[in-house]
Amino acid sequence: MAGVTLRGVRKSFGRIEVIHGVDLDVADGEFVAFVGPSGCGKSTLLRLIAGLEEPSGGDLSIGGQRVNDRPPAARGIAMVFQSYALYPHMTAYDNMAFGLTLSRTDKGTIAERVRAAARQLQIEDLLDRKPRDLSGGQRQRVAIGRAIVREPQVFLFDEPLSNLDAGLRVQMRLEIAKLKADLRATMIYVTHDQVEAMTLADRIVVLNAGRVEQAGTPLDLYHRPRNRFVAGFIGSPAMNFLDVVSEGRADGSVRVWLPGGVPLDIAVDGAVDGAVPPAGSPLTLGVRPEHAGLADGGAGLLATILAVERLGGETHCHAALEDGQRLLVRLDGDRPVAAGERLRLNLRGETAHLFGPDGQRL
Amino acid sequence: MSGLPHSSLERQRRRAAWLFLLPMLVVLTGVAGWPLFRTVFFSFTDATLATLDGFQGVGLDNYLWLMRDPVWWRAVWNTLVFTVVSVGIETALGLGIALILNAHLPGRGLLRAAVLIPWAIPTVVSAQMWGWMFHDLYGVVNAILMGLGLIAEPRAWTADPDLALPVVIAVDVWKSTPFMALLILAALQMLPRDLYEAARVDGVHPVKVFFRITLPLIRPALMVAVLFRTLDALRVFDLMYVLTGNSRSTMSMSVYARQYLIDFQDVGYGSAAATLLVLVLAVATVLAVTLGRVRVDAGR
Questions:
Q1: Count of CB atoms within 10 A of residue A204's CB?
Q2: Pair (B97, B243) in one structural domain
Q3: Do both A197 and A107 map to the same domain?
Q4: Set of chain A residues whose Cβ sits within 8 Å of the Cβ of B300
Q5: What is the CATH number of the domain that holds A265?
Q6: A270: confidence class by pLDDT, cuts 50, 70, 90
Q7: Residue among B198, B205, B217 whose CB faces A89 most closely
Q8: Which chain B residues are within 8 Å of A102, Cβ to Cβ?
Q9: Which domain does A168 fall in, by range?
Q10: Per-residue pLDDT at B13 exceeds 70
């Protein structure tokens, strides 16, 4: 088993740099998810670690060894591709055994390893079938099995579940979680689905435009996003952002004026100390839909409901504030609300975030 | 739906289908069916070009004569040698060129277009061009080889019985390799890149990747290409006729049939040769499709 270390890793395609110097430490046995919007460079970063792309700069080590110049097969990695990349003319067994047969591993060992992986993935009955006779979920298992039999130090997953339908995705997500517990190997997992990242990963790396925006545990990212991008990316439905005016800082918190002249005190970390803008300057307030409740009394932020989406377990209210700013509020499933109604909202300062004009959290 | 053959909708659809097929059936019958039928019919008669209306049935006489003619067997042998050698070389070369064109080279598009030029030139034109290049007195081939000191005196490339067939094969390879290369290239480009990346992660040697992954996956398309070229090569006519005329050392079955039909005006006998050629083609196709498990639709 081994950790993965990236130091100032850059990648350019021609004149366009897509990875702008990434520093990252993945500990031995850690499950790290790379998330970010399309084109953020998360797959490229994974392919750099795999050795399918060559870095244009920086150092890449696996298990303490610099691997920049090593071919993929000599890096102790195994990769599971989004398209599964199974050899269509080989049976599931041959697909899993192919890499081993060529490295002249003894036949008995190969059979043993393939059977063990097949048992683990519950595909023992499917080993004689070719990929075209397997369902999407079964193909994915074979692809994972092919990675397991290589007994790699590091598993790399490139959006492994995005070709599956929703139900199967949840099931495979649980299986990957089980695999993570069983194998105790280092795993790096690329996904655009933040739910997958939140549920599977020990640590999430949020990427945007070739840079690491923030790396941290799922709850860390949820509760203490470093900037507006991470705040908006992590959490579903996404965080609301409102334009507010600062009244200045006092006692570790900042008071802002919400539309309609409602004041709100928001605790600030001081992590980005000295960056608090003076009174009167515009800021962005971030409130998660689940943290915007209904006010008990007559006080609170006045909002008009534009539309109501009932999901059964919860209700999503799209509302407009007095100055026209939009806000999504998540309420209980059977809360009696209707479009056109006026509500008083209670945004609690302790769960809200403030972002400066540069997008950094205060 | 097909379980109700007498429903009016089903009948209507059948009628529409036949209606759409009719023009093609009429044209095919006129341009392929009727001439083929006439050829087979004449092969059992003593018709000549001059007496196409007055002939008598002679049963299998023409075929029996054909079986006893060493020139015919020489033509069969020439055709088979030509087919096996030229298609073999074209397949190997075409595969190599396709693999090169499939790599990410600068100017790949231009290269691809350039490769196709020999295939685009009409055979008669390129055969005549090569005929001049191989000319024993004024040909550029002799000039170059003598200039390089590889041969001491000019060779009569197309007249020498030992050289004529190799020359014809060489010209065919020059002309038809692009066809092979492009068909194989099309198959190569259908292969997903992921497979090759998976193989790299698996640490498979590039040579093994070719034999264990690339070749099995392009096999269906490759077999179709080989079948097409084989059928083409078995009925080769223009190359031999332009380069070497009716010379026995290169005479193919088609050249033989044409010689009897036109030069000797023996329509009956020539038709018998042509009919046998069709039979050989049919047998070759059936063999290739069954033994090679070729799927003519080439899809998966």
A1: 29
A2: yes
A3: yes
A4: 88, 132
A5: 2.40.50.140
A6: low
A7: B217
A8: 202-205, 208
A9: 4-233
A10: yes
Do the chains contact at B201 and A103, CB–CB below 8 Å?
Answer: no
Provide the pLDDT for residue B300: 40
How many residues can be counted in chain B? 300
pLDDT digits (tens, 9 = 90+) for B109-121: 888 888 888 988 9
Q: Does one domain contain both B80 and B177?
A: yes
What are residue A302's DSSP bridge partners?
Answer: A344
Judgement on whether residues A228 and A106 belong to the same structural domain of the protein = yes
Q: Is residue B144 part of a domain?
A: yes
pLDDT in tens, A125-142: 999 999 999 998 899 999
Q: Out of A200, A218, A233, pick the residue that ends a domain.
A: A233
- Closest chain B residue by Cα to residue A84: B194
Are A290 and A217 in the same domain?
no
Query: Cα distance from A169 to chain B (closest Cα, Å)?
Result: 21
Structural domain for B248, as ranges: 76-254+277-291
Do the chains contact at B200 and A88, CB–CB below 8 Å? no
The strand pair at A326-332 and A203-208 is best described as unpaired
Residue A131 sits in a domain of what CATH number?
3.40.50.300
CB contact under 8 A, A73 and B201: yes
> What tokens were used for B20?
């759409």
Q: Which positions in chain B touch A78 (Cβ < 8 Å)? A: 201
Provide the domain count of chain B. Answer: 2
For residue B23, the model assigns a pLDDT of: 96
Higher pLDDT, A297 or A43: A43
CA-wise closest residue to B268 among B75, B41, B69, B37: B41
A309 in the Ramachandran plot: left (φ > 0), alpha (ψ -120 to 50) or beta?
Answer: beta
CA distance B145 to chain A (A): 46
B192 with A83: Cβ contact below 8 A: yes
Q: In this structure, are A278 and A218 located in the same domain?
A: no
| A179 and A255 belong to one structural domain | no
How far is the alpha carbon of B101 from chain A, nearest alpha carbon, in Å? 21
Prediction ipTM score: 0.82
pLDDT of residue B33: 93
Asked if B217 lies within 8 A of A88 by C-beta distance, the reply is yes
Domain tally, chain A: 2
Mean pLDDT of B46-65: 85
Question: Residue B294: what pLDDT?
Answer: 61
Contacts of A76 in chain B (CB under 8 A): none
Decide if A51 contacts A77 (C-beta within 8 A). Answer: yes
Give the span between the Cα atoms of B33 and B212, in whole angstroms: 44
Distance from CA of B199 to the nearest CA of A (A): 8
Q: Is the pLDDT of residue A278 over 90?
A: no
Residues A203/A215, Cβ–Cβ less than 8 Å: yes
* Contact assignment for B197 to A89 by CB distance below 8 Å: no
* Shared domain check, A22 and A142: yes
DSSP 3-state assignment of A35?
A: strand
Q: Which residue from A331, A261, A341, A330 is spatially nearest to A301, judged by alpha carbons?
A: A261
| B145 pLDDT more than 70 | yes
Window from A12-16, A175-179, A269-273, B231-235 with minimum mean pLDDT: A269-273
Contacts of B197 in chain A (CB under 8 A): 52, 79, 81, 85
- Could you tell me which chain A residue has the CA closest to the CA of B194? A85
